[in-house]
Each structure stands twice: as C-alpha cells, then as structure tokens.
Amino acid sequence: MAYLLSSVACSVLVSVLLKLAPRRGWDAAQMVTWNYLAAAALCALLLRPPLQALRGPGAPWPEMLVLAAVLPSLFLVLAASVRHAGIVRTDVAQRLSLLLSLGAAFLWFGERASAAKLAGLGLGLLAVGCILARPDPAATAGGRAWGLLLLVWAGFALVDVVLKRVAMAGTPSLAVLQGAFVLAFAGMLAVQLWRHRHGAPLAASSLGAGLLLGVLNFGNILFYVRAHQALPESPAVVFATMNIGVVALGTLVGVLAFGERTSRLNRAGIVLALAAIALVAATR
C-alpha cells in the first residue's frame, strides 16, 4: 500500500507544481524539457529497461516517435488546464481517460464488453459532462477550460492506447518509454534553444522546477510499477486505488490548498467518476 500511496502523492504533486509555475515565474515549457531529462536518467538508472528490444527489426519506432511528440505536448496542455480549469477538474479528466481507452479496447483490441464495463463507461461519460461544466458560469476562461479538459481526457487515452499496442506487439513498455523520454527531451531542448535565441532565456529556477517535476513524474511511474509487482494477484486493486486516490487527493488539495471552486454539477461528476472507476476496476 505504501507504493500506491506514494504513486498517488507523486501524481497530485505534479499538478501542484504545474499550478505553482505561473505564480513563481517558472517557464512551463522549460520545466517540461528538464522533466524529461530527469525522467530519462532515473528510468535508466532505477528500472534498467531492456533497450536491446529497440534494436531489432520489429522495434516499434513509429509508436515511440508518437509518444515522443505527444507526451511533452500533453504535459504543456496539462499545465494550461491546471492553470485555467484547476487541479480538481484536471485530475478527474485525466483519470477518466480510461473511458476512451476502454472504448478503444472494445473496438480494436478485442476486449469483451461486459455489463459492468458498459455501466462504468456510461457513468464515466456522465461524469465527463459534469466535470466540463464551469463552476462559475460568468467566468471568461470557461470555454478555454473545457477545451483543455477535453484535450487532457483524449491525450492520456491516446498514450494508453499507444502503450497497449506496444505491449501487444511484445516490446517491453519500459524500453519504449525510455526511448520516448530521451527523444522528447531532445526535441524539447531544441525548442528551448530556439526560444533562447529569440528572447526567452533559459532560467535556473525553471531548470530546478523542471528537474523536480521529472522526479515526481517518474516517481508516479516507478511506484505504480512497484505496486503491481508487490500485488501481482490484485491488478484491479492497484488500478482502482491509484485512480480513485488521485481523484480524491486532487480534490482535497485543489479545494483546501488552492481554494478552487466546484459547482454541484462538478461534485456530482466527481462522485460519478469514482463509481465509474470502481466498476471498470471490478472487471479487470
């Protein structure tokens, strides 16, 4: 259970760090860049992924290149969503991405659609609608917020689908993630050097915040992997505890630490999201 709680804490702290970025003057794009340097280094040192799997003729380079482009883009969307929509709604949208992944599993991966999964899918879609509703109907950033939430929802589902394709092809997911982290860092570093030459200098504060972001980002992955290894017979427990834990802790942190407002409809969406996650987990 300690691994699961640590994974939940790291996930929510990623959102907290992104929420603090504009207040502290940290450049989000620079933070995302250095995040991948830290994540790639820690992945290589602590998980030692089997990189020889990437040297064979069947190596999933197209999927890895997709991840290298999507992951940093999604991180930037996540930062914008936390800023405009808040931690509460962003974390729920992120966790509800499992609905799109589930739909993809039905359509493309031959997974059977049980009654419980379909019920979870239905509840989850209702939850998405409730979460997208603006807490303050008069808020001028409402349209931007729900657009960002939809991108978070779809983006994390896309990452999950790509990793599932990799797993079905027999390539170790950790090796693909390691390659994607390195490629993402290289691409983002090139962007930052270009920005540096055009009036956006690299900042030491953003470097430090980005490295911390990478530690938390990788910590979320590491502790989640360790939790599955510690509870090999209970994958549904790990899955449900992780997702429900992030929704619950993210809600507490967003409301209590940052004073985020939620409407009755938003709160109903959170309850529906928890029920949907529990239903889906019960059939895993």
Automatic annotation (TrEMBL):
Is Transmembrane found in the keyword set? Answer: yes
Q: One Pfam family, short name please?
A: EamA
Transmembrane ranges?
28-47, 59-80, 92-109, 116-134, 146-163, 175-194, 200-225, 237-259, 265-283
What keyword terms does UniProt attach to this protein?
Membrane, Transmembrane, Transmembrane helix
Keyword field contains Plastid: no
The protein's superkingdom reads Bacteria
SUPFAM superfamilies given in the database record:
Multidrug resistance efflux transporter EmrE
**One GO cellular component term:** membrane
Query: In this protein, which residues make up the domain named EamA?
Result: 3-132
Record-linked InterPro entries: EamA_dom (IPR000620), EmrE-like (IPR037185)
Name under which the protein is recorded: EamA domain-containing protein
The source organism is Pseudoxanthomonas taiwanensis
